[in-house]
Amino acid sequence: MRAHRDPAREAGRPGTAVRRTERLARPARWPAAALAAVLALGGCGIAPTGVQDRGRPPVISYSPTWVTVYLLRDGRLEPVRIPVGSDTASDIVDTLFRAGKQPPEPELTTALDAFRHYDTETTRYAESGRRKDLGDTTGYRLNVILSGEGTLSRAGIAQLTCTIRQNKQESIWSVEITRLFPGEPRSWGEHTCFEFRDLAADGVRLPP
């Protein structure tokens, strides 16, 4: 006759406890394909998405300021459009000298090769006598200060004067040109572009 099995007694047997512990600790076996799919879709809790086009990256556009400078073609004044960082009087004069060193066309030259732009100064004055149509409107005289040796030709004076007047007609009424050094300072007087109208190239209309 088989003895009745007492579960309480068997619970105290060492072998029985080990077998039950192995069953509890043993992990469930998942099929390899299913496990890989779960890891791919649910990794880190973020569902995968396709590549999304967010448009082009932002681009900073720069629109330069353009000024007109006067170079020489066969000794006659020819207007040329040149981009500059700003349209201040000093930058305009610098642009004229730079364009003379690297003219946009081989036929264009300059009469300013022997000189360098040193500084610019403005003085305010009322020209009610010369500009009666504007009453007592106050304008400015621009003094262009150069360095260099030799004599500035009439064509060079015209280049400086007409370039300034072309771009600053409303504020600069006249241009005075001075050589500061080397040697003794020298002034080439005060000018407007109108007095150089005989140097204009064919079809070119100079500013006043």
What's this model, at a glance?
By secondary structure, this protein is an alpha+beta fold. The protein has five helices and six strands, in the order H-H-H-E-E-H-E-E-H-E-E.
The quaternary state of the protein chains shown equals single chain
Distance between the termini: 136 Å
By DSSP, the count of extended strands is 6
Q: Assign an overall shape.
A: globular
Query: Helix amount, in percent?
Result: 25-40%
Kindly provide the radius of gyration, computed on alpha-carbon positions and rounded to a whole number of angstroms.
43 Å
Could you give the order of the helices and strands?
HHHEEHEEHEE
Any chance you could write out the topology, listing elements then pairs?
Layout: H1 7-11, H2 14-25, H3 32-42, E1 65-73, E2 76-84, H4 89-101, E3 115-126, E4 138-148, H5 154-167, E5 172-181, E6 186-191
Parallel strand pairs: 4-5
Antiparallel strand pairs: 1-2, 3-4, 5-6
Helix pairs in contact: 4-5
Structure report:
- There is one protein chain.
- The protein has 208 residues and is of the alpha+beta class.
- It has a domain at 65-199.
- It has helices at residues 7-11, 14-25, 32-42, 89-101, 154-167; strands at residues 65-73, 76-84, 115-126, 138-148, 172-181, 186-191.
- A four-stranded mixed sheet has the order 3-4-5-6, covered by helices on one side. Strands 1-2 form a two-stranded antiparallel ribbon.
- A hairpin with a 2-residue loop joins strand 1 (65-73) and strand 2.
- Helix 4 (89-101) packs across helix 5.
- It starts with 6 loop residues before the first helix and ends in a 17-residue tail after the last strand.
